[in-house]
Model the fold of this input.
Amino acid sequence: MWKGSTIGVDLIEATPIYRMISRVAKYGLLFVVLSFAAYLFFELLSRLRIHIVQYGLLGVSLSLFSLLLFSLAEPIGYTQGYLVAASLVLAQASLYTAAVTRRFKPTLAFATMLSSLFAFLYVLLGLETYSLLIGALALFAVVSALMIVTQWVNWDAGREVEAAA
Done:
């Protein structure tokens, strides 16, 4: 009687956790730049002034995302870690923006922009072949939009007030 040998298959993760986190770290600058662009859009469109220190604190908060993701992805997995880290940073940045501006609608708009950015980054990281192309096109689109929006800003408004005094 023939007793066949057992054959087993181990599934290999398409993209290991550490590789994905490494990609997050590499795209960290893109993420922070796009977040600052969202904050600038927020500032220009809502006609609120945000201090440079507040931009800095937002940058520190966003920089913690990679560290949170790394520390959470090991015990709970990449997708769940991404979701928790993104939620924590989104809540922190949105609550801080609400405290700074004391306005609900602009804060909601900023939170929507930032959550869209987290979703975009998640999709971007999943695209192995086209991630660089999509990231470059996204930066191009953001710079183009900033160029359009900043045309509406009266950069000399502060100087006219100083000259009149």
In short: The two ends are 104 Å apart (CA to CA). DSSP finds seven helices and no strands in the chain. The chain has a mean pLDDT of 79.
